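Weekly structure sync, notes
Attendees: PL (lead), two postdocs, one rotation student
Agenda item 3: pending single-chain targets
PL asked that the sequence for the first pending target be pasted directly into the notes so everyone works from the same version. It is reproduced below exactly as submitted, 96 residues in total.
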Amino acid sequence: MRARQQWRLDPSEAQVHSSGKTVGQRTSATKNSRAETATSFTFKLTHGPTGLKAEGCVPSGRYTRKQMQVLKQDLLRALMKQLEHDVAKRLRIPGR
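Predicted structure, written out during the meeting:
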């Protein structure tokens, strides 16, 4: 008996739009730490063939570069999973 191969969304079909925002008094002339600024980041994914969208954001907060990198990766992974689910539902893929 053959095992059914699970359908996956091709990442090349998803367009990623991103934007970030920093609020605070961080200038090149001062040596302020990142803890004094608040940053946020937004991702918008669009599936080209169907036009379905998924979007989300990392809320404003005081993050280190490493923390922001991890939060962005987690958000992008979750949005890709959501978009994959929505596309499978729209295309009526069996077992999804």
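Discussion points:
- The mean pLDDT is 85.
- Residues 36-96 form one domain.
Action: rotation student to compare against the earlier draft before next sync.
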